[in-house]
């Protein structure tokens, strides 16, 4: 079996080389100026071909780096490497970061101010009625794919304590499992709700295309994810002035200043989620403070215009090389 496994691996490596050789010919024929790869997998699939064709490749790192072998190959293959933030850049491989520092750039995520303004000024009466979102309640939301790494269960495990203190607390879970293999996780969330008698305090909304509108109707946004590249949903919540309780992961460690414009919690800590949510639930002035500070942070540092200019400059730099 071991011999068969080695044989299969060699065949896969040969197939990958042939594929990249084909890509290299295609890139030369079409006069490709640069190649964009938004994951290590795409870089491995196209990076060798780009090298063979003499075409620069950009690797935009959008998640956690956790495979030393493949990630090292990625650093070698990519002509330029972009991270969302300095914190993500510095999480792993300090030696590689030093060796390839001239290739590395920081290009933060950004939001469109016009979209934010349009959503904030739109009439959401119909949406409020559709989802029975009542202003007399304390409304909180978790946004994201419903599967274990997003951590919805950490919030639900603490909901009974929150509801005991604030019976009018309502949690909305927006998102779905996406893949069939994660449906059992959704079932486990329903089991927690039934076990703790939370049927009147938790509602699943499924996959939504109006997440930004939903956020404007919330009092608190909770983001219990175990890992993030950046956490766009948190950025959107802050843009519309929602107080956030988020895991200390990814780019969230840069945009959120704990206790100033939001709360950061230890990933996986139900106790900390409950503690911070209770603080916000009981202190409207604190919610307002976080709201104003969060919005200022986004408007000052996370709008899309200058991010587009950074990316454009990088493309031109790569094409010229």
% residues in beta strands: 5-15%
- Beta-strand segment tally: 10
Could you tell me the radius of gyration in angstroms? Answer: 23 Å
CATH architecture of the largest domain, by name, is: 3-Layer(aba) Sandwich
- Oligomer state equals single chain
Strand order of the largest sheet: 7-6-5-8-9-10
- Proportion in helices: 40-55%
Following the backbone from N to C, one meets helices and strands in this order, namely: HEHEHEHHEHHEHEHEHEHEHEHHH
What's the N-to-C terminus distance?
Answer: 47 Å
CATH first level of the largest domain: which class? Alpha Beta
Describe this structure in words.
Strands 7-6-5-8-9-10 form a six-stranded parallel sheet, sandwiched between helices. With 321 residues, the protein is an alpha/beta fold. The protein has two domains: 126 residues, Rossmann fold (3-Layer(aba) Sandwich), CATH 3.40.50; 189 residues, Rossmann fold, CATH 3.40.50.2000. Helix 8 packs parallel to helix 9 and helix 8 crosses helix 13. Strand 6, helix 9 and strand 7 form a beta-alpha-beta unit. It contains 15 helices and ten strands. The model has no long low-confidence stretch (mean pLDDT 93). The radius of gyration is 23 Å and the shape is globular.
């Amino acid at each position: 079996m071991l011999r068969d496994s080695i044989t299969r691996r060699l065949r896969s490596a040969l197939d990958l080389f042939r594929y990249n050789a084909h890509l290299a010919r295609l890139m030369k024929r079409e006069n490709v100026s640069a190649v964009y790869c938004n994951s290590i997998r795409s870089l491995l699939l196209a990076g060798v071909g780009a090298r063979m064709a003499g075409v620069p490749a950009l690797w935009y790192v959008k998640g956690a780096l956790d495979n030393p072998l493949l990630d090292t190959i990625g650093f070698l293959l990519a002509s330029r490497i972009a991270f969302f933030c300095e914190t993500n850049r510095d999480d792993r491989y300090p030696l590689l970061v030093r060796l390839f520092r001239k290739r590395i750039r920081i290009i933060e995520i950004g939001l469109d101010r016009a979209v934010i303004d349009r959503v904030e000024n739109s009439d959401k009466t119909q949406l409020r009625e559709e989802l029975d979102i009542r202003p007399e309640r304390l409304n909180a939301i978790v946004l994201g794919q419903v599967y274990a790494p997003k951590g919805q269960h950490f919030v639900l495990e603490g909901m009974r304590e929150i509801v005991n203190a604030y019976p009018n607390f309502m949690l909305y879970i927006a998102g779905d499992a996406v893949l069939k293999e994660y449906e059992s996780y959704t079932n486990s969330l329903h089991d927690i709700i039934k076990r703790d008698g939370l049927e009147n305090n938790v509602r699943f909304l499924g996959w939504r295309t109006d997440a930004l509108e939903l956020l404007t109707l919330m009092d608190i946004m909770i983001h219990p994810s175990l890992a993030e590249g950046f956490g766009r949903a948190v950025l959107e919540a802050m843009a519309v002035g929602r107080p956030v309780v988020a895991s200390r992961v990814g780019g969230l460690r840069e945009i959120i200043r704990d206790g100033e414009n939001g709360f950061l919690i230890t990933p996986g800590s139900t106790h900390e989620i409950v503690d911070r949510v209770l603080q916000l639930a009981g202190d409207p002035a604190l919610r307002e403070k976080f709201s104003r500070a969060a919005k200022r942070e986004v408007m000052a540092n996370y709008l899309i215009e200058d991010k587009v200019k950074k990316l454009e400059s990088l493309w031109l730099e790569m094409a010229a090389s």
